[in-house]
Design a protein that fits this description.
Number of helices: 0
Number of domains: 1
Shape: globular
Distance between the termini: 30 Å
Largest sheet: 4 strands, antiparallel
Low-confidence stretches: none
Oligomer: single chain
CATH superfamily: Kelch-type beta propeller
CATH class: Mainly Beta
């Protein structure tokens, strides 16, 4: 990986690559960066960054192949209620609707109807 990080997420995308998002970097900086690991070539590449740096967040792969990142924490804002979508076909992030409450160290489950249920 390009960045040392802890308290990040790692998710297997529909294309078989692993997307690592956010976390805490060196000197306790929260990261908005994301990196892709390709297991077929054993290589890491940097992809576009999230709008907000975050750690202790969740990342859920949706049925449409996009990745939904919810909540997390950063020392500027505290518990985050924001969510962002990653589209692996365009390597871009889009901010999406906010949760009613900020959450971190939570879980998020993709339900059979395609909705995501974040729980503390």
């Amino acid at each position: 990986m390009t960045n040392t990080r802890a308290s990040h997420t790692a998710s297997v995308l529909s294309n078989g690559k692993v997307l690592v998002t956010g976390g805490i970097g060196n000197a306790s900086f929260f990261l908005n960066s994301a990196e892709l690991y390709d297991p077929s070539t054993s290589t890491w590449t940097t992809t576009s960054s999230m709008t907000n740096g975050r750690y202790f967040h969740t990342a859920s792969v949706l049925s449409n192949g996009k990745l939904l990142v919810t909540g997390g924490f950063n020392s500027n804002s505290g518990a985050l209620n924001g969510a962002e979508l990653y589209d692996s076909s365009t390597s871009t992030w889009t901010t999406t609707g906010n949760m009613a409450n900020g959450r971190y160290i939570h879980t998020a489950s993709v339900l059979l109807n395609g909705k995501v249920n974040p729980l503390i």
